[in-house]
Design a protein that fits this description.
By secondary structure, the protein is α+β, with helices and mostly antiparallel strands. It has two domains: 6-158, 2-Layer Sandwich (Beta-Lactamase), CATH 3.30.450; 172-230, Winged helix-like DNA-binding domain superfamily/Winged helix DNA-binding domain (Arc Repressor Mutant, subunit A, Orthogonal Bundle). It is 52% helix and 15% strand. A hairpin with a 2-residue loop joins strand 4 and strand 5 (117-126). It holds the Pfam family GerE. GO terms for molecular function: DNA binding.
Amino acid sequence: MSEPHPTEEFEQELFSLIHRLLPVDGIRFYIYVPWAQLKQELSSDHDLDDMMENYPKKYWSIDPMHPSHYEGTDKTVISNSQLMSHEAWSQTEILNKFYRPNGYFHNCDMFFRQRDRIVAILSMVRKSPAIPFTDAEMDLLHQTQPFIEYCLEKMYISERAHNRSSLIDEYHLTAREVDVIEIALTGVSNKVLCRHLGISLPTLRTHMQRIYSKVDVHSNAELISKLAKYAL
């Protein structure tokens, strides 16, 4: 039997820590690629894996807790009950189209940053409408966040920064071209890639032509195969 990857051990320990701190019905951990979709790293419940498959395709744009809303802020922990009243949350599209059909009601997210940009998210959910995340629980999570962020810096964030620098040095890429590559390596369509980068398809084609030339490939499939070791 192969040894677990160190990051997998960290994620399992992180889930255990959260379960010791407060009651939750599910936990999800994500790496958040700037301008891109959430990439799920690990979930505490297989039902959450199925639930989250459609989130990047259909629901992120109606989610008031999506990390894009908190770039440029100092928010580290948020919950639906902190954002709005129970009555207001009960009327939101994200609850009624996404959480509630999957058996969940309350959500709390913890953000982790590098150089003032969100790079990872820990998301916690509860099923019962009668058990919101309390102020005391939010305070506890606020106190815990810096320690987890420090661990993430050691386990994930420094590796991503190293990968970006290696790509730039090895293939003489620009930072924006590396942004494109990071998203392309997740396997999303060009349409989705354009939406998350905020660019047009012709602009994307220009970026890809330059990337193909520098990396010496002729298609997305070849690009993904050649640069797979740099994927988050």
